[in-house]
Automatic annotation (TrEMBL):
Coiled coil: none annotated. GO terms for biological process: fatty acid catabolic process. The keyword tRNA processing does not apply. GO terms for molecular function: 2,4-dienoyl-CoA reductase (NADPH) activity. The keyword Nucleotide-binding does not apply. Keywords: NADP, Oxidoreductase. Pfam families: adh_short_C2 (PF13561). It comes from the Bacteria. Residues 11-169 form the Ketoreductase domain. The lineage of its organism: Bacteria, Bacillati, Actinomycetota, Actinomycetes, Streptosporangiales. This is Short-chain dehydrogenase/reductase SDR.
Amino acid sequence: MTPPREDFAGRVALVTGGGSGIGRAIALEYARNGGTIVVLGRRPEPLEETVRLVKELGATGDSVACDVRDAGAVTAAVDSIVERYGRLDALVNNAAGNFVVPAERLSPNGWRAVVDIVLNGTFFCTRAAAPHMLAAGRGAILNVIATYAWHGHPGTVHSAAAKAGVLAMTRTLAVEWAGRGIRINCIAPGPTDTAGAGAALWATDAGRERVLGSVPMGRFATPEEIADCAMFLLSDRAAYITGEVLTVDGGQWLGKAIYGDPGA
Ligand code: HXC
């Protein structure tokens, strides 16, 4: 575990999908760096466990159970956070849904479920946070995407299309809000060893080996490694960075195109 590098004392961050995996790791890392954390997700129990862990670190933590697909509920949740804590400094759009399916077998509902969570959910949370951040003249938004937003990937047409939309949204809003104090960036984790990603993307031992074999570094990321990089983008050290993507994937997407054996 790296020592805390940021000073988030007095700052408040909202992390969607904060009850598990990368979202929980980001929430805990923000708390370790002195910030107050609110986690949002569908199921209260995992959120409450994150809050317990945040409090164990001596930080303030809170949770809101709501579905990012429900724009009205998301707006009410964000407004209540600002009412309670007086500010919202950071928003991490991490909530995601995913499963691997051949495109021709993907039902309209399956397409809608993933696009609603990833693309619409990210916009709904962002539009709920924006008025508060614009009024304060400062805010940092971080969207968790995947490298297949730009290179695509068979079996993930819904998720890849939605993440590509989030990337385009990020770049658009970065320019729209650049002069008004809001920075908005993406982080693109490679395969990360979490229960959710494992179940959705490498459910069998053979699948897990295949994914590992596609990573030049030969290992999964830990959620903590992703969270550590997220802290940088949320911090003032990244004050001049907006509309950017930080890829944290062990070289996975660059290593994809291999023709023959390049030798040891
Ligand atoms: C085909 C499927 C399916 C599957 C669901 N559907 N799973 N189709 N193969 N494996 C279809 C259903 O049949 C239904 O369509 C439609 O999708 C909606 O399913 P519901 O279960 O009713 O939806 P819902 O309860 O809203 O669940 C949403 C979900 C679910 C996305 C389907 O998996 C979810 O909530 N996941 C959240 C957690 C998660 O996925 N985390 C992984 C993130 S990892 P019909 O037509 O039957 O009604 C990640 C990493 C990416 O994103 C980057 C890697 C590098």
